[in-house]
């Protein structure tokens, strides 16, 4: 499979308000939009297709797990960015006064798998994690 292009992922997730979702993903995260209706919106999530579906009763539900002393939402999605992209996004989110579940920080500093990570929620309460690795060859390092 190494000779094949990396597949793109598709993710559909529930939201409680399409207008708030559009503003957050487009204006705060910088995602372009694709097709939409009065029930859903396609977003270009760094080249991947994510679709926000209007479903207020399902939006934002997740339990928490302890990971390295932080309460991490068990249900979340996000991306592994390049280090500089991660820093730029963290700065943009701070400028937009986004409330972090877990503030931007570096885990495993100086060790295999060193990574920057941050968690925050969209307006519907869906948790997102963005991270970056110093060395992408160590994404699955133990």
UniProtKB/TrEMBL annotation:
Protein name: Glyoxalase
PROSITE patterns noted in UniProt: VOC
Gene3D superfamilies: 2,3-Dihydroxybiphenyl 1,2-Dioxygenase, domain 1
InterPro entries in UniProt: Glyas_Bleomycin-R_OHBP_Dase (IPR029068), Glyas_Fos-R_dOase_dom (IPR004360), VOC_core (IPR037523)
Pfam families according to UniProt: Glyoxalase (PF00903)
Source organism per UniProt: Fodinibius salipaludis
Taxonomic superkingdom: Bacteria
Domain VOC positions: 7-133
